[in-house]
Backbone:
């Protein structure tokens, strides 16, 4: 059997990080196809109202799952640390505690997501003419929370031990299945947006099954055993310690984005569908950022676990530069091609114009977004997740919401809503660059061990 995991504590830094990030990028690309396929097929086969209904739930989806996916990131930091240190006993404890915790989380998320989201959608000011469709889509989506949570959990385990190729294979399979089921449910069986949500849930369960099979049959030290799944008190504390700040950070961003979405909703369903289409495109643009930030976090975590401090710093620098450059190239492409890209989702000229306007404001500033996330990935990998959390809380929540509350009533134009993104990206980037240069993040794990 070919070993799929990678120990990043030795060998060429650039080659290892690119080899890890590229399969992850392709995998993320296929994962993005889940929601994008929904939007394209829904928009073309069911019309603009259905597209607006799916788009209106996007920020709520992110809000509901972000806390727990952030905690999964923290678990990945713990796992990569013990994998790099070759501490197999603690590696196994961290993996099985993480699985037990997220099984419990999925039950909680199912209950909350299916019961509270209608009230939240109304609070967001979702237009009445798409409210019923939005509620139907989101309820089916969250009824499958087990698949959503557990896929992120199992994928995170594989990434923490340097395996980005297995998740890629599983995402290709499940994404293609998602598209086939979308066309089947909507095009053949004539279902509404509920069919698109059901297609996503079913295909996600397939990817979970493939991940479980991989982790239970591997001969490596990170093998999963059903009988070992349970809670270890000390390991759970570590997972929450490193994961909760990331989860809160994601939730804070999610709350702020709900406020932003409510401001977009105020401009009508054409604005909702146009800006929603742009969000799908931005999701693709964000993929190289996600890929290299995951590589950065895994690389830094493994090397600090092995006490390879100079190597960790070199890898962090390489990942930051790659993320920034690629993100800006994509931003320029989106700026130039935005009318055609938005037009792929909807044929309504007014909706297309809303999407193009947002693209022309945000896309050239992707280098700021990339820098913020790359710096945050370094700090998370070093066990300093509180700093990115505080940064996002301050700039992406407090500043963003305050700006909108003050400026939108004065100017009442959607351009004000669109400009809040580059503004807050810039502020968070400046702060994190200063912290990265001044703070001793390389020895954060060592200091934490001394304090225990």
Residues:
């Amino acid at each position: 059997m070919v070993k799929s995991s990678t120990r990043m504590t030795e060998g060429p830094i650039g080659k290892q990080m690119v080899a890890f990030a590229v399969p992850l990028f392709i995998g993320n690309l296929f994962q993005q196809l889940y929601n994008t396929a929904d939007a394209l097929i829904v928009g073309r086969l069911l019309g603009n109202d259905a597209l607006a209904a799916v788009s209106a739930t996007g920020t709520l989806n992110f809000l509901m799952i972000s806390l727990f996916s952030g905690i999964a990131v923290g678990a990945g930091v713990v796992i990569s640390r013990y994998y790099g240190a070759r501490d197999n006993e603690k590696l196994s404890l961290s993996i099985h505690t993480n699985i037990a915790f997220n099984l419990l989380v999925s039950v909680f998320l199912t209950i909350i997501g299916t019961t509270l989201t209608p009230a939240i959608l109304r609070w967001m000011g979702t237009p009445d003419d798409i409210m019923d469709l939005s509620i139907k889509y989101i309820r089916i989506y969250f009824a499958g929370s087990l698949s959503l949570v557990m896929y992120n959990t199992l994928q995170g385990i594989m990434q923490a031990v340097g395996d980005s190729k297995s998740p890629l294979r599983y995402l290709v399979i499940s994404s293609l299945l998602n598209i086939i089921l979308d066309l089947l449910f909507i095009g053949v069986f004539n279902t509404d947006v509920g069919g698109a949500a059901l297609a996503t849930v079913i295909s996600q369960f397939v990817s979970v099954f493939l991940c479980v099979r991989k982790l239970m049959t591997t001969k490596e030290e990170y093998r999963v055993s059903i009988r070992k799944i349970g809670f270890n008190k000390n390991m759970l504390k570590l997972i929450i310690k490193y994961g909760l700040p990331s989860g809160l950070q994601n939730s804070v961003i999610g709350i702020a984005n709900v406020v932003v979405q409510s401001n977009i909703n105020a401009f009508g369903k054409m604005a909702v569908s146009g800006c929603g289409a742009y969000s799908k495109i931005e999701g693709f643009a964000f993929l190289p950022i996600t890929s290299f930030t995951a590589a950065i976090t895994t690389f830094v975590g493994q090397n600090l676990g092995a006490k390879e401090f100079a190597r960790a710093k070199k890898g962090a620098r390489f990942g930051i530069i790659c993320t920034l450059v690629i993100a800006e190239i994509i931003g320029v492409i989106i700026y130039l091609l935005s009318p055609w890209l938005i037009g792929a989702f909807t044929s309504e000229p007014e909706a297309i114009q809303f999407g193009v306007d947002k693209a022309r404001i945000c896309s050239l500033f992707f280098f700021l977004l990339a820098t913020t996330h790359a710096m945050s990935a370094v700090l998370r990998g070093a066990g300093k997740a509180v700093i990115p959390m505080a940064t996002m809380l301050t700039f992406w929540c407090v500043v963003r919401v305050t700006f909108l509350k003050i400026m939108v009533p004065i100017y009442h134009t959607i351009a004000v809503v669109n400009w809040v993104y580059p503004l807050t990206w810039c502020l968070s980037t400046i702060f994190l660059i200063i912290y990265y240069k001044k703070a001793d993040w390389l020895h954060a794990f060592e200091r934490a061990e001394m304090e225990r």
Summary: Residues 88-123 form the longest helix (36 residues). The chain has a mean pLDDT of 84. Residues 86 and 142 are 38 Å apart (CA to CA).
